[in-house]
Amino acid sequence: MNLREQMNIVIVGHVDHGKSTVIGRLFADTNSLPDGKLESIKEYCKKNSKPFEYAFLLDTLKDEQSQGITIDTARSFLKTKKRDYIIIDAPGHIEFLKNMVTGASRAEAALLVIDAKEGIKENSKRHGHIVSMLGVNQVVVLVNKMDLVDYDERVFQNIRNEFTEFLWKINIKPVIFIPISAFCGDNVAEKSYRASWYNGPTVLEQLDGFANKKETRELPLRMPVQDIYKFTAQGDDRRIVAGTILSGSIRVGDEVVFLPSQKRSVIDSIESFHTVPKDIAYADEAIGVTLQTQIYIRPGELMVKANEKHSLISSRFKANVFWVGQAPLIKNKVYKLKMGTTKIGVKLIEIVNIIDAAELHIDTYKGQVERHDVSECIFETTKPIAFDLISEIEGTGRFVIVDNYEISGGGIIMKNVTSGDNTLIDHIQDREFLWEKSFISSAQRNGAYGHKSKFIVITSGNEGNEHVIEKIGKELEEVLFRMNYKTYYLGISSILSGLMSQDSFNYEDREEHIRQIGELARILTDSGQIMITSVFNLDDDEAEKLKLLNQPHEIIIVNIGESPFSSFKAHASISSDVAVNTVCEMLREQEIILEYYL
Fold this sequence. Notes:
Elements: E1 6-13, H1 19-29, H2 37-47, H3 62-67, E2 74-79, E3 84-89, H4 97-104, E4 109-115, H5 122-133, E5 138-144, H6 153-169, E6 176-179, H7 203-209, E7 223-224, E8 227-230, E9 239-244, E10 249-251, E11 255-259, E12 263-271, E13 280-282, E14 286-291, E15 302-305, E16 312-323, E17 329-330, E18 334-339, E19 342-355, E20 362-363, E21 368-369, E22 374-387, E23 398-403, E24 406-416, H8 423-434, H9 442-449, E25 454-459, H10 466-482, E26 487-490, H11 493-499, H12 506-526, E27 530-534, H13 540-550, E28 555-560, E29 572-574, H14 579-589
Parallel strand pairs: 1-3, 1-4, 4-5, 5-6, 25-27, 25-28, 26-27, 28-29
Antiparallel strand pairs: 2-3, 7-15, 8-9, 9-14, 10-13, 11-12, 11-15, 12-14, 16-22, 16-24, 17-21, 18-19, 18-23, 19-20, 19-22, 23-24
Helix pairs in contact: 10-14, 12-13
């Protein structure tokens, strides 16, 4: 079967500048209309004493015909010799801005229409700004209604010069400006003899000249991990990593990396429900894979190929969002971000600018994003996540924001942000500045208790070790207590591992509990005690977070068996049978507990 290439084009512009007429003319001139459609509309106009317009070919909604405006984002289909097009006629009236945003977000290129007689309107600039915010890089400006200015080249050049200067300011480099008359057909599908001074392509030629996005299977592999299935019946020890491939392909024998954990393995098999295993799978297939080495990964991670370009990993990014929540999007409130299978807490850190949907006004000073606003913002997640820019891979560049269990906004990621302090660091600095210090010094507490304070975290990457590390923590507490040291074991490992089995926003909950552990550790170590806890499968980011939260006091992280870390170095990696004695020896070597106190 010969599958034709398909491309999405959005057309935008000020009210009555001729967007629908451009599309109608393209349809008529390329014979893309159903048989008899053009003739029936002409006959309708004749019977109703109404002048025929090509825009009528698109105005099929009753409200459109009664009001004379394009109400909804109309999806129309156009065919050329090269490819098929979906033409998205986005409304120019400001009350339908959100529809235009919805339409443009699915476009690979944009046509922006300007009336040659009326010139550049403020809405023309605002629509250009929105196209820029949506990441549409291929933009062609159609200077329409040239017949109304007698095809004057100076009018065209003035509009081109002025609008080019504006577009450059908003980071759009227009592909070309084309002088047209959609009503008369000049430079739409055929060259215009009336604008003989113009030597560039027609609109139709330019459409075929646009670069289309790559097929999803040609892009680097992206497979969000949906779940990990384990089997125990009849000696089946497989662990199947399940998910849907968003882009690229995967073969048996490919080396893969899971992000953001950076854990690596090799594909051992590719499986699907009720089918025989296969050697290769492509984009849009829901599959399960087994790995040659058993590594512990979590749902929400992103599987990529080791030899292909990886996704970005960061906790900060710049994104353009369209907000539909009843309550405004505000700074520093923790929302829930969902992208692929990733579910994580997110904060709005900075508002770069906002386009007000009601007035189409661009505001750089508003402190919150109101309903139906389009905004360029900087967000920060509670821990680093893997993502791609929308211009590179669409499936991992889009997200939604959930507020109070309702989807309240959608966004596209435009840029990775590496500068600026993490809000956790800001919080710790503020906390330490406001901390009410006791009259009793740490040295006095050390002398009274016979030891220094310490935060001890016991972890493991071995499946089934949750209760093992709990037992070690409690035994360590018991040994230190019998030596008359002030110590306390906070048993939360079971709670954390239990949260991981819930279907709701479990990873945000885990992140919050990690934060609570760190804050409690800061209090208990400040009181001079030795605090002990166990956290199963602690990852690099969580370990760093606990270190930060416990500042200015110190931490010891002990790993039992298989390490859950990718790059973080535990203070000790030991077996369970010698764990308690090894940790006690470490405390003596670091002079946390001193020989002469024993």
